[in-house]
Specification:
By secondary structure, the protein is an alpha+beta fold. About 15% of the residues lie in helices and about 35% in strands. It contains nine helices and 22 strands. The protein has helices spanning about 35, 60-65, 70-80, 155-170, 190-200, 205-210, 210-215, 220-225, 440-445; strands spanning about 10-25, 45-55, 85-95, 95-105, 110-120, 130-140, 140-150, 175-180, 255, 255-260, 270-275, 290, 300-310, 320-330, 335-340, 350-355, 370-375, 385, 400-405, 415-420, 425-430, 435. The strands form five sheets. A seven-stranded mixed sheet has the order 3-4-2-1-14-13-12, covered by helices on one side. It is elongated and about 75 Å long. Residues about 1-5, about 120-125 and about 275-285 have low confidence and may be disordered.
Length: about 450
């Protein structure tokens, strides 16, 4: 059962958000990310937001990734698509990558998608540091996700604050903002022995008052707008790769400079903010729940989990996971378009469907309708497609009939949906009900199997 079907009260519905931030240290992804995504919770997740830092961004690799998907995106799509999650959008700036996935049922109500990026590294000329964001309307409520990689090292806390404020100034943020990434704040003052002893004994609270982000929150008004759950997990940096052991590098000398082990720190964080500023909840000591008391369309954000997964070792950082419940009343409940499949579909004859524009939106003659096999990964993962009415944009309420050539249809049987892709909105805004494409006579006569069919069966 999806989270949208539970927690309904007075017209409110709860949606489950799963977030991950991970500095992957230019590594290739592990073989399996299922535990990172926690794919078996009840209720099921509605939105996945994954922010990565230091994705391999050498010039040759970066250009290759622009042409096709990077290896991390491939793995995430391959893992989530069979569970019914579609990649809605992504934004990449050098090593920073932010990806949004949603259950198919939500896509028609994810609108006004905008992605931006701000460089701060090397005077803004090279995007090794900075922030990438995606903002969109979710059932009429504006959500924004900001993935940052800020300046490193202990003595650059003020520069990190400057970079964060610069990013906030350069990007447009609405009601609900999630700020996360490798924020690079360190644990000040404490020596290595005290740090490791506190961590080994699970006494993380002894370190909180010297965490730079916690300390700066007391004096920086912009940080006071943001909330964060308690740091009841191990500092996420710096680990020996493929281990759960903190940095054990021996001291080394390089041109007279002596290296040293990095102190453990909570560099990787997930915070959130609601504007206008969150009102106090019933439990004044709780930092895991906040809300905006809009009489007509209230929204409440509750953090259900905040932890790291130390089992992953490809990087010297451990990934941080947070789950949230977004409780809101839907402002939007009607799709912009309806799609209706006519008759039986098979590759033995041309197929027919109709679409109807239900509500005004910025439609285009470059819009198209794709045929998607259930388990598809993204808007571009279609079996075939047809352009919308090409002589003029359809009027509201007009029923438009479209044909797909039998030569373009899959030869083998399978479950499919039609999806309407809006070029201006850069997303799928409507789906038909699921229907069956029947096995064609050609497939029966020739005894065809999926691997013989050049791309028709995926």
């Amino acid at each position: 059962m999806s989270a949208q079907n539970v927690g309904s009260r007075n017209g409110h519905q709860a949606f489950r958000l799963h977030m991950v931030t991970w500095n992957v240290g230019t590594a290739e992804p592990p073989a399996d990310v299922r535990s990172l995504l926690q794919l078996d919770p009840q209720p099921a997740t509605d939105l996945f937001v994954i922010g990565l830092q230091e994705v391999n961004a050498t010039p040759v690799r970066y250009i290759t990734d622009l042409i096709s998907e990077d290896s991390w995106s491939h793995l995430l799509m391959d893992t989530l698509a069979p569970m019914g999650y579609i990649k809605v959008t992504s934004v990449r700036m050098q090593g920073l990558l932010l990806i949004l996935f949603a259950k198919q049922v939500h896509l028609p109500f994810i609108r006004d998608i905008q992605s931006t990026y701000t460089r701060t590294g090397l005077f803004g000329y090279w995007g090794n540091k900075g922030g990438v964001s995606v903002r969109f309307s979710f059932y009429g409520h504006m959500l924004c996700f900001l993935n940052c990689h800020l300046a490193a090292h202990m003595n650059y806390a003020l520069q990190r604050m400057d970079e964060f404020e610069y990013i906030l100034d350069r990007q447009d943020f609405d009601m609900v903002v999630f700020w996360f990434g490798d924020l690079n704040f360190r644990i000040a003052d404490h020596g290595m022995h005290f740090l490791r002893s506190s961590i080994n004994n699970g006494r993380f609270n002894l370190l909180w008052n010297k965490d730079q982000l916690t300390m700066m929150k007391k004096k920086e008004p912009i940080l006071q707008e943001f909330e964060e759950g308690p740091l009841c997990f191990k500092p996420t940096y710096k680990f020996d790769r493929f281990s759960e052991t903190y940095d054990t590098r021996p001291p080394w000398t390089w041109f007279g400079f002596i290296g040293k082990k990095r102190k453990p720190a909570w560099t990787d964080r997930i915070l959130w903010r609601i504007k206008p500023k969150a009102i106090e909840t019933e439990d004044e000591n709780s930092s895991t729940s906040s809300s905006v008391d809009d009489d007509e369309y209230p929204i409440k954000v509750t953090q259900d989990m905040y932890t790291c997964d130390v089992s992953y070792g490809v990087s010297d950082h451990k990934p941080v996971i947070a789950t949230f419940s977004l409780e809101m009343r839907k402002k939007v409940e009607t799709p912009l378009v309806t799609l209706t499949v006519e008759g039986h579909w098979s590759a033995d004859e041309d197929a027919t469907f109709t679409y109807t524009i239900l509500e005004n939106f910025e439609s285009s003659t470059w819009d198209w309708i794709g045929l998607y096999k259930i388990g598809f990964k993204s808007a571009s993962d279609y079996s075939t497609f047809a352009w919308v009415k090409d002589d003029e944009v359809a009027a509201n309420g007009e029923v438009v009939t479209v044909q797909m050539s039998k030569n373009e249809l899959p030869l083998l049987a399978g479950e499919y949906v039609l999806g309407y892709y809006s070029t201006n909105m850069q997303t799928l805004i409507a789906f038909s009900p699921t229907f069956q494409v029947l096995e064609s006579q050609q497939a029966v006569m020739e005894g065809l199997v999926p691997e013989n069919i050049n791309g028709h069966e995926k």
